[in-house]
Write a structure and sequence with these properties.
Elements (H helix, E strand, L loop, with lengths): L7 H15 L1 H7 L3 E6 L11 E7 L4 H6 L1 H10 L5 E5 H6 L5 H4 L1 H12 L5
Parallel strand pairs: 2-3
Antiparallel strand pairs: 1-2
């Protein structure tokens, strides 16, 4: 029997698909955000290598996305994710101490794109 691995990208796509199909109000916000599923590697907690979702939001949307956090957590838990973390992408990009451009250049470009997009709410 062949083992099928569900990747972080698959989980992020499933998360966004559920939000888009079942929660259109939240989707109006998240379509302007960058969603990434990551592995948590905390050694002090009971959960090792648990997956969580990180939502990078433009500054103008962060408060509205955080207001939907209970709904987002519900969908994340349905997919087996343990946490939802909202990050202000605008602040991250303007942080002079951030190493994101050097360490994660693709993520840096994706975040640049989302913070410059105009949304229709």
């Amino acid at each position: 029997m062949e083992r099928v691995m569900i990747t972080e990208e698959d989980l992020a796509q499933q998360f966004t698909l559920i939000i888009e199909q079942a929660h259109p109000r939240a989707w109006k916000l998240l379509q302007y955000c960058y969603i990434k599923v990551l592995n948590s590697k905390s050694k002090g907690a009971c959960i090792l290598h648990a997956k969580y979702i990180r939502i990078y939001c433009p500054d103008r949307l962060i408060a509205a996305v955080v207001a939907e956090k209970n709904l987002l957590i519900e969908v994340a838990e349905y997919l087996g994710l343990v946490e939802v973390v909202c990050v202000n992408a605008t602040n991250l990009l303007h942080d002079t101490k951030s190493q994101i451009k050097k360490i994660y250049p693709k993520l840096w470009l994706d975040l640049q794109w989302i913070v410059t997009q105009k949304q229709e709410l």
